C-alpha cells in the first residue's frame, strides 16, 4: 500500500535553510531496509519489486543550502566523475567542494574545476557536511578508522566503494551516523551515469532526496534496497566495461574487414551511443528493437546467429552474475578488505 508524502517542511539537518518541494512515494516495504532486502531477494523476477524504487519528482529539484559543503575522500576516477557531474547543475559552486588524496597526481583536474584540494582527510571531514568516500574498497576501513572521531550526526557519509555494506560502514563510524551507499558508474563524467543508492539505518528519506537531487546532473539516479546495489555493480558499475569490450570487438570486426581503425572505433562508439539512446528513449524492449533491424534473410539475422553461436548472451549474463558475486564477496570479507595491500 503506497502513501504519498509531500514535503515542504524545514529540514533540520541543514538548519532550516533547505526548503525542499519534493514528492516522495513511500511504500510500506521501504520503511525498513531488512524488509526491502527480504522482498528483493524473494521476488527478484517479479516486476512488482520495481515498486520498491523510491521516486522523487526530478522536476522539483531541491534548493541547495548555501551551508552545504561537499567533500571527497579519494581523488580518483569516480570522485572526479561525480564532482564534475554535480558541479554541472550550477547549484553547487566549486568553492563548496573539497577533495583529499595522499598524492597530488589527480589534483590538477579538480583544480581545473575550481575545487579545493588537500592531502588531509581530516580537513575534508572538518570542513564538509556531505562527504563521499571514494577510495578503493580495501582502504575504506583504514580511512574511516582515522576520520571516525570527527564524524558527527550532522554529517552525511556516502560510500561508493564496491561491496562495502551499510552494516560494515556503520560499524566503522560512530553510532547514529548518517550513512548512504551509492553505486555510480563512469559515465557520470558526461552526465550519463546510472546510479543506485541505499540509505543506512539513520539516513532519513530527506537525506536520500538531498543525495538524489545533488546527483541528478550525473544521470539516472534511483534509490532501492541494499540487496540491489551489488547487482547494480555487476549490471552497470562494471557493465560499462562490458559495453566497452563489445564496442572494441565491433570495431575490430570492421578492421578485420578492411576499414581503417580510427574510423571503425569512431563508428563503433556512435553505434553504441545511438543504440543506447534509442533503447532508453523509445522505452521498447531490446528484443523488439532488434527485430526492427532484422530484414528476413538479410545481414543482421546472419550476424545475430553468429553471436548466438559464440555464446555472447550467456557470456554477458555470466559476467553480470560473477561481478555481482564478486561485489557480495567483497562485502562478506571486511577483514580482507581492510588488510589487502592493492592500490
Ligand atoms: N571506477 C569506476 O568505474 C567505479 C568505481 N567505484 C568505486 O569507487 C571507488 C574509487 O574507485 P576509482 O575512483 O576507480 O579509484 P582510483 O584508483 O581512480 O582512485 C582512488 C583514489 O583514492 C585515493 N586514496 C588512496 N588512499 C587514500 C587514503 N588513505 N585517503 C584518501 N584517499 C586515498 C587515491 O589517491 P591518489 O590520487 O594519491 O592515488 C585516488 O585518488 C572504489 O571503491 C570503487 O569500488 C564504483 C563505481 C564505478
Ligand atoms: O571494478 C570495480 O571493482 C569497480 C566497481 C564497479 C566498477 N568498478
TrEMBL record:
EC numbers: 1.5.1.2
Family named by the database record: Belongs to the pyrroline-5-carboxylate reductase family.
Stored NCBIfam families: proC
Job description of the protein: Oxidoreductase that catalyzes the last step in proline biosynthesis, which corresponds to the reduction of pyrroline-5-carboxylate (P5C) to L-proline using NAD(P)H. Proline is synthesized from either glutamate or ornithine; both are converted to P5C, and then to proline via pyrroline-5-carboxylate reductases (PYCRs). PYCR3 is exclusively linked to the biosynthesis of proline from ornithine.
GO aspect biological process, one term: L-proline biosynthetic process
Protein name: Pyrroline-5-carboxylate reductase
Keywords associated with the record: Amino-acid biosynthesis, Cytoplasm, NADP, Oxidoreductase, Proline biosynthesis
Subunit note: Homodecamer; composed of 5 homodimers.
Catalytic reaction list: L-proline + NADP(+) = (S)-1-pyrroline-5-carboxylate + NADPH + 2 H(+); L-proline + NAD(+) = (S)-1-pyrroline-5-carboxylate + NADH + 2 H(+)
GO annotations of cellular component type: cytoplasm
Residue intervals of the Pyrroline-5-carboxylate reductase dimerisation domain: 226-330
Domain Pyrroline-5-carboxylate reductase catalytic N-terminal residues, every copy: 69-163
InterPro entries from the UniProt entry: 6-PGluconate_DH-like_C_sf, NAD(P)-bd_dom_sf, P5C_Rdtase_cat_N, P5CR-like_CS, P5CR_dimer, Pyrroline-COOH_reductase
Organism listed in the record: Esox lucius (Northern pike)
Pathway recorded for this protein: Amino-acid biosynthesis; L-proline biosynthesis; L-proline from L-glutamate 5-semialdehyde: step 1/1
Subcellular location: Cytoplasm
Molecular functions per Gene Ontology: pyrroline-5-carboxylate reductase activity
Highest rank taxon of the organism: Eukaryota
HAMAP family on file: P5C_reductase
